[in-house]
Design the sequence.
């Protein structure tokens, strides 16, 4: 995993983000996604510089995943590393009310990755 993936996984694993279960490196229809909540039908993808060169592939992949009922949300690696709390807030917003749990664990503010 990249440093950005490690940082985000620290906050997503073990239902740490509002009690939502996320999986990492999950295969969906022949594609491996970075993070997915099956419950919320949301896929989180982290992009580095290499994704700029493969826009056509990413678009086709996103279209397929959307056709399977998933919402794909992309963040740049530097966003995760520099604005972690904003990224987590956006993920919660994108998950919407379908994934909000009545008694979620508190949002952790420690970064955990140095």
Sequence:
């Amino acid at each position: 995993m990249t440093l950005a993936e490690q940082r985000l996984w620290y906050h997503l694993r073990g239902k740490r983000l509002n009690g939502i279960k996320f999986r990492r490196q999950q295969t969906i229809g022949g594609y491996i996604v970075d993070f997915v909540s099956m419950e919320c039908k949301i896929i989180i993808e982290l992009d580095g510089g290499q994704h700029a060169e493969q826009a056509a592939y990413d678009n086709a992949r996103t279209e397929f995943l959307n056709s399977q009922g998933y919402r794909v949300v992309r963040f740049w690696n530097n966003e995760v590393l520099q604005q972690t709390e904003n990224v987590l807030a956006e993920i919660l917003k994108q998950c919407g009310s379908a994934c909000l749990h009545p008694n979620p664990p508190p949002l952790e503010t420690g970064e955990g990755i140095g």
Q: What stands out?
A: The mean pLDDT is 86. Residues 55 and 61 are 10 Å apart (CA to CA).
